[in-house]
Specification:
Elements lengths: L2 E3 L4 H8 L4 E5 L9 E5 L4 E5 L2 E7 L5 H8 L2 E7 L7 E11 L6 H5 L8 E15 L15 H21 L13
Length: 181
């Protein structure tokens, strides 16, 4: 049976912090625009308060989440428990994109590992916390993080990463503005 929570309490926080993957969903305002759903891994999620969370956004082939947040701020993070008791936790809210050139980036970045591929921090003011049964979610064992992302980044080098972001992360697939720099 689903439950609405007033905030991320200590028990929910512990559960969320123990997850190795979560999913982020956003959508543009245009009803013909493409919805986006992205998996997130690595050590990139932080709970900053009972109604505030953040995650590192690393370089990827698209920039949909960033573009959608800049347009309308709507976001939901979903955590599925693949180990232990079945549960799904959703954090609905309003997200902001904190890019490296913004003043608040440095302080927020200090709470995360320093990944060379970090392109922004997504800060979410959580407006709804809910959980529901995860009876349909399979049990799976965590085997570790993949190393391809960072191997790809090392091969590109700093200049190559800048070029990649400039060429691939300026606009969403629907043409919305993405990264500023």
């Amino acid at each position: 049976m689903g439950k609405i929570h007033t905030e991320i309490d200590e028990s929910l926080a512990k559960t969320l912090q123990n997850q190795h993957v979560f999913f982020v969903a956003t959508a543009p305002l245009d009803p013909e625009g493409n919805l986006n759903l992205s998996p997130k891994g690595l050590d990139c999620f932080r709970i900053l308060g009972p109604r505030t969370v953040a995650y590192l956004d690393v370089i990827g082939s698209g920039v949909e989440t960033i573009a959608h947040l800049k347009e309308n701020g709507r976001i939901v993070l979903m955590f599925c428990m693949f180990e232990g008791p079945p549960n799904i936790i959703r954090l609905h809210g309003h997200g902001r994109v904190i890019e490296p050139h913004l003043p608040e980036f440095r302080e927020l970045a200090s709470k995360f590992p320093a990944y060379e591929t970090t392109r922004a921090i997504i800060l979410v003011d959580v407006t709804r916390v809910s959980d529901s049964c995860g009876f349909g979610v399979p049990l799976m064992k965590y085997a570790g993080d993949r190393d391809q992302h960072f191997a790809w980044a090392r091969k590109k080098g700093q200049d190559g990463l800048k070029t990649y972001k400039r060429e691939r992360n300026r606009r969403s697939i629907d043409g919305l503005p993405g990264l500023a720099e």
